[in-house]
Predict the 3D structure of the following.
Amino acid sequence: MRHEDTGNTENTENTDMLTARALVKSYGGVKALDGADIRLRGGEVHALVGENGAGKSTLVRILSGTLAPDDGSVLLADEARAGGIAVVSQELSLFPDLSVRENLFPHRPPRRFGLLDRGAMDRAARPVLAELGLDVDPGTLLGELPLADQQLTEIARALLRRPRVLVLDEPTSALSAAAVDRLERVLRTLTGRGIAILYVTHFLEEVMRFAQRVTVLRDGRVTLAGVRREETGVPDLVTAMLGGTPPLPVHRTRAPAEGPPPVVLAGVCVPGRLTDVTFTVRAGEVVGVAGLQGAGHLDALAVVCGRTAVSAGRVHVGDRGLPRSLRQAVRAGVAFVPSDRKRYGLMTDRTVWENVTAVSWLALGRGGVMPSRSELVRRTLDLTERLRLRGGPHDVVTRLSGGNQQKVVFAKWLATDPRIVVLDDPTRGVDVGVRAEMHRIVGELAAGGAAVLVASTDLAELTELCDRVLVFVRGRLTGEVSGGRLTEHELAAAMQAGADLRAGPRGEGPATAGG
């Protein structure tokens, strides 16, 4: 990577602090960045947005110097070179068992006579903490602070390096509305000092609120380059993220079964995660849940699976009330296919037949106390043939491809004859062929009378699979998208501006999510 100076000036406002040109980075045969450009100016918040896999993380790593591009250059102004680039990551790199002071000076802290000079540390820290509006004693244990204060502590640590370029990666994904307001004030303070801020986010509402400019990445390419905020809007950003004309919607012919719905949530609250969430899922339908990170849609799935307790509201799953554990949920007829199959879905050192029969035999006791191995293998063969799995029942799971491992997870839960199927990113990491197989299986489950709930980071998957999609924004169910409106573009817009869905399709009042 080539670094160049771009001159010196006393007033850094509107000065090009960093310019990246034609950045290219490949991993194997896949281009994460394909000629990406970006220019950061002093005194501005520059938002960087794009879907998962668009190349944002790769770009940030190159700008921070932790990753070298295959081609292209990064040019720094004298001020940026002198002050450096600081990155505040989404996952905080702090130590909760240490004090705020110790977290602020993790490397080369001031010393006196060979001992830590706490006075010097506090004198350096207090002005920065005050500038961020963080009124804490530097000796306080970090773990005693709320998350918003911990995040500001990480920003303070970055500012103690006196950077001229500051990268904030998803800074509000876990913050309350009040904490977001506080961050807005911090951003104004920092840009007033002439710092160039790269603000990486999924929340387009924050782009329109905080940023002076915005760049959009799609498939490693820049589709919107440093456009001024007032010259664009959320629909333009969604189109830049997803592509041009939305595809024609797929019209569903599935009809839910009559009778009581097997999944009911009414007024459900989970402190800090869900607020007054109400929806039902009927037998024979596939219902998606969508939202940005931390929106609450995955928490709703966790409630159904018995993995999250509620503080208020009513939950009915299967023929029972609220399951208190995943085991109780399984006994109520719930199957749960997790996104991380290796950690939560498989016993990777065991055979296919041991994995497939684990829940139905060990958890539910089907087949008696000690069914014969031949019987368990026969049941496994029936399921793996149905799923077209490439591999025998006696193969160790680690020998299978990722797609076939995912089929083993599906087979394990199909063996329980579930009434309710909960899928979290069911086709993550599998190829197009396996994805089509998984979608076929989901359709068969619904046709057989199961109620299916599915979350996916791939909006196209939700439009292909689902009869309707429930949209969550900041812990609230803000509405649903269905029928002719169920497109990637409509979903993306709804996730960004969920308040727009509070009115029904003709403005007749709050949208329902009952099916």
